Amino acid sequence: MSDEYFTEFLEGEGFAPALDCHPVDEETLNRYQGKLPDRLLGYWKEFGFCGYGEGLFWTVNPADYEETLELWLKNTPLWGRENYYVIARTAFGKLYVWGDKTGNATTIISYQHTIMPQDIPYETLDKEKIERFIGTFFSLQDKENADAYDKNDKLLFKKALKKLGQLKPDEMYAFVPALSLGGVADIKSLQKVKLQEQLSILAQLEEPTILKTLHEMFGEDLYS
C-alpha cells in the first residue's frame, strides 16, 4: 500500500526509517473499515503503528485516544459536530485528529492548549477526495512543523532526543511545569513523561483556545 504520498513522507522529508513498529491486527482494521480512509488502513497494514523521524512523529491506534480526545473536545463547539479519530501525534503531544466530515486533520497542540480546526465542507466529501486528503496529510508533513520551539524560537526535538533519550510509544516530551502554569519553553524544562497521563492532565488545566479556520480567516472554499 506504500504509494507516492507515503514515499514522500518517508524519503522526501526524511522521516524514514520507521521505529518501534507494532503490527495492526485484523480486529483493529475491521473496526475502522468505513470510518477511516482505506489508504490509511493500508498504511497501518503494511507498516503498523510506528514512530518516524527518530520518534518525532507517530502513527497511532485511535482507540487508545478516545478518552483523551473527549477530555479535550467535550466542552468545545467541536464536540458532536462529527466523529473524530486521533490518527497521529508528535513527540511533544500535538495530536492530529481525523474528522469524518472535514477529512484533513484538526490539530490539538496540547502544550499550548490550542485547537486548530478544519472547515466543514459544503458538500459531502467523495471517496476520491478523502483518499487524496489522507495521502497529502502524510506527504506534506515536515519536521519543523512537528517540532516544538523554545522561548527563543529554536527547535527542541534534537536537543530533547540527545538529553532525554528516544521515546517509547507511550511516552512524550513535556514542559514541567506546564506552560499554562508558568513553565518555560526551554530544554531545561523538558522531561520524558507518560503520554496519556500528561495529555489528560493538560486537558484539565484550562479550556483550550480554538483558532479560526482558514475559511473564517480568508473566506476561501478549500474543498472546491
UniProtKB/TrEMBL annotation:
UniProt domain T6SS immunity protein Tdi1 C-terminal: residue ranges: 136-205
Segments forming domain GAD-related: 7-110
Name of protein: GAD-like domain protein
